[in-house]
Design brief:
Transferase(Phosphotransferase), domain 1, 2 domains, Protein kinase domain-containing protein, Kinase-like_dom_sf, alpha+beta, 6 helices, six-stranded antiparallel beta sheet
Length: about 240
């Protein structure tokens, strides 16, 4: 029985062929769940259509405004090789709508503080967001907990302050929702999972709220480092 459970656990993380509908296209990709804890999140490698190189060449001859309009109106033809599919969880209609609206509101932060959202797709009959694969490692994992406290604090501050500058606070303060990523040669924190966010009250100072959230995350990070050291997953 134990071996069977182990085999099942490995199979959900093994690459397989995935089909999903995005805009005018039925897209084929290879991928699997990102991890066992998030069965609704898939990391995929695209199977690019033979038409895509032709389309890319033709677009070069078009005026820049028209080219930009085509990119934004038909993103299904211009997806990068590596993407993330995030399916709506059962019964989480409101949370899905919240996350989709958050990506739209925070469009100028996409690719910098949050993933790029290419749009909504259908996968296995379920609403799904097509997101960029930001890479890096979750801060809740050993590979993502490599910075000292004094080095990671300003990165948390920078990410949450960027949200606050647009009147948004993250309402799910756990390390799983923060990834340490290399960006243009620098390490940054990127925020994932925007299903639970709040509009900042206009009468409150966003700086104080950000610092309170950073303090909370730093305590969680400190405890996390201690656990990793006790388990000999980090050098003491």
């Amino acid at each position: 029985m134990d071996n069977g459970g182990s085999d099942l656990g490995e199979s959900i993380l093994s690459p397989r062929i995935i089909y999903f509908r995005f805009g005018s296209r039925r897209i084929t990709a290879t991928g699997a769940q990102t991890d066992r804890e998030h069965p609704n999140v898939l990391r995929l490698s695209m199977h690019h259509s033979v038409l895509q190189p032709v389309i890319q060449i033709l677009l070069r001859w078009l005026p820049s405004p028209l080219r930009s309009w085509i990119y934004s109106s038909s993103p299904e033809w211009f997806l990068p090789t590596n993407i993330i599919l995030k399916k709506q969880k059962d019964g989480w209609d409101e949370e899905f709508d919240t996350e989709k609206a958050a990506y739209e509101k925070l469009k100028c932060l996409q690719g910098l503080v949050i993933p790029i959202c290419y749009g909504q797709a259908q996968y296995e009959g379920t609403r799904t967001l097509v997101l960029s694969d930001i890479g890096g490692s979750c801060v809740a994992e050993p590979k993502g907990a490599i910075l000292r406290e004094q080095d990671v604090r300003p990165l948390f501050d920078q990410a949450l302050s960027a949200l606050a500058s647009h009147g948004i606070s993250h309402d799910d303060m756990k390390l799983d929702n923060f990834h340490l990523v290399n960006h243009s040669g620098n390490k940054i924190i990127m925020i994932v999972d925007l299903e639970r966010i709040n509009q900042l009250p206009p009468q409150k100072d966003p700086t104080q709220m950000v610092q309170a959230d950073v303090d909370f995350l730093m305590q969680a990070y400190r405890d996390h480092l201690e656990c990793l050291q006790e388990d000999e997953l980090l050098p003491k």
